[in-house]
């Protein structure tokens, strides 16, 4: 980044930090900005850590913040709707959910950790979100094989998050309808004509390494229709919809450890939250982050953990899960809606198994490229990981007899 651009970015960040200080009533501030940071394996620009020091009510304070903001006008336009979505979740949904949690949920183990947003703006061309930094938590290395302890924490947290929608639906139907109206259009896929054509080529990159010819043929038959699949399954189902995180994978999950053992998890990045089937979140995480060996051993246990945790949260509010999300319905949605997670993972697998620099380049291309020749320039270093992960999730999906055939294409 050239000196002139850095200077301009510093000036704009300084204005944001001053706004934070004013909102928190901190005076005499000093701050240090870190432009990007090693402990977050980010595929995109727009993240800054800030250490801010000053005085609050005469006492010294020292706080660490994360600022989500894009200095590029082009990037601001690209992420504008995502910032609006996170603003809605943090400023409208989260306070309501927190009130439910404080008043109705007594079991500490069933409580969900919400993002600690301290400033957000969706003013045109000045979009910004500021959070307190998450202390004592860290990312899981996406190149390592994830284990049951980590995955079960994620599944439990998805169940807790989804349970709030069922509680709101039952106890506050007017508020639930309000949330639905604000979140029922997916940020990425609600307009088929705006879905990048490049997704087909990333999907086909995964398709090209599948070894089972029968499975490959089935997936090849849908390759031209993946935009329709993404559009259909990211939208609300007929019934049983919840506010989904919609981007639950390694880079958006922080874990707390005691020794080497994970004991807690926090989700970050709510810029894609949507109103849809809970299975879209579950299948997205499972296919993006696990492999065939893991799923073959633990998949059914994880489904039981999800439904059992959701049931336990609902019982705190005197709601029977069989009235709001029966196990039979959950199992049926898994058969049909899991294709959403599989398609998303096959589109993303080449990127998420790449080293950070490669992944960043491919992520930028993914939003704009329209021919596979440009994609082929980026052969990843971790080809064996890519091939194994693709074949693993494809084999598992079809061995479960999940559906690719229930969708009627236009």
Largest sheet: 5 strands, antiparallel
Q: Please identify the structural class as seen in this structure.
A: alpha+beta
**Mean pLDDT over the full residue set:** 90
- CATH T-level topology of the domain at 136-400: Aminoglycoside 3'-phosphotransferase, Chain: A, domain 2
Just name the CATH architecture of the domain at 136-400.
Answer: Alpha-Beta Complex
What share of the residues does DSSP label as strand, in percent?
5-15%
Alpha plus pi helix count: 14
| Low-confidence blocks of residues | none
Query: Could you give the count of β-strands?
Result: 10
- Strand-and-helix sequence, N→C? HEEEHEEEHHHHHEEEEHHHHHHH
Q: For the largest beta sheet, what order do the strands appear in spatially? A: 1-2-3-5-4
Question: Span between N and C termini?
Answer: 46 Å
CATH class of the domain at 136-400: Alpha Beta
Query: Over the alpha carbons, how many angstroms does the gyration radius reach?
Result: 21 Å
* Helix proportion: 40-55%
Oligomer: single chain
Identify the overall geometry: globular
Explain what you see.
This protein is α+β, with helices and mostly antiparallel strands and 410 residues long. It has a domain at 136-400: Aminoglycoside 3'-phosphotransferase, Chain: A, domain 2 (Alpha-Beta Complex). 53% of the residues lie in helices and 15% in strands. It has 14 helices and 10 strands. The chain has a 5-stranded antiparallel β-sheet with strand order 1-2-3-5-4, with helices on both faces. It has a 3-stranded antiparallel β-sheet with strand order 6-8-9. A two-stranded antiparallel sheet has the order 7-10. A hairpin with a 2-residue loop joins strand 8 and strand 9. The longest helix is centred in the N-terminal third of the chain and has 32 residues, at 73-104. The radius of gyration is 21 Å and the shape is globular. The mean pLDDT is 90. This is CHK kinase-like domain-containing protein. Pfam families: EcKL.
């Amino acid at each position: 980044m050239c000196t002139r651009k850095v200077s301009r970015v510093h000036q704009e960040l300084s204005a944001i930090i001053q706004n934070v200080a004013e909102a928190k009533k901190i005076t005499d501030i000093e701050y240090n900005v870190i432009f990007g940071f090693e402990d977050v394996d980010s595929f995109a620009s727009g993240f800054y850590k800030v250490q801010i020091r000053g005085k609050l009510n005469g006492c010294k304070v020292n706080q660490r913040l994360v600022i989500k903001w894009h200095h590029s006008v082009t990037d601001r336009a690209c992420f504008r709707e995502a910032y609006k979505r996170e603003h809605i979740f943090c400023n409208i949904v989260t306070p309501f959910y927190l009130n439910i949690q404080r008043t109705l949920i007594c079991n500490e183990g069933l409580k969900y950790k919400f993002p600690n947003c301290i400033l957000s703006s969706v003013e045109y061309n000045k979009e910004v979100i500021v959070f307190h930094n998450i202390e004592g938590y860290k990312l899981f290395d996406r190149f390592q094989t994830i284990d049951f302890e980590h995955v079960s924490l994620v599944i439990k947290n998805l169940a807790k998050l989804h349970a709030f929608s069922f509680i709101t639906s039952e106890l506050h139907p007017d508020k639930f309808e309000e949330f639905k109206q604000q979140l029922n259009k997916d940020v990425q896929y609600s307009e088929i004509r705006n879905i990048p054509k490049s997704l087909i080529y990333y999907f086909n990159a995964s398709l090209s390494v599948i070894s089972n010819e029968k499975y490959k043929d089935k997936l090849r038959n849908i390759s031209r229709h993946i935009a329709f699949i993404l559009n259909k399954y990211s939208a609300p189902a007929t019934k049983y919809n919840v506010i989904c995180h919609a981007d639950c994978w390694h880079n958006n999950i922080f874990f707390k450890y005691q020794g080497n053992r994970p004991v807690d998890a926090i989700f970050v990045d709510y810029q894609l939250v949507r109103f849809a089937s809970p299975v879209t979140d579950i299948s997205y995480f499972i296919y993006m982050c696990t492999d065939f060996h893991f799923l073959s051993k633990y998949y059914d246990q994880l489904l039981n953990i999800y439904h059992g945790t959701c049931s336990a949260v609902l019982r705190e509010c005197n709601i029977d899960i069989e009235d709001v999300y029966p196990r039979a319905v959950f199992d049926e949605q898994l058969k049909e809606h899991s294709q959403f997670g599989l398609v998303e993972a096959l589109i993303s697998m080449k990127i998420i198994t790449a080293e950070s620099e490669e992944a960043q380049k491919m992520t930028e291309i993914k939003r704009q490229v329209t021919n596979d020749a440009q994609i082929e320039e980026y052969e990843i270093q971790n080809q064996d990981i890519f091939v194994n992960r693709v074949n693993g999730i494809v084999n598992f999906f079809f061995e479960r007899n999940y559906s690719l055939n229930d969708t009627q294409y236009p």
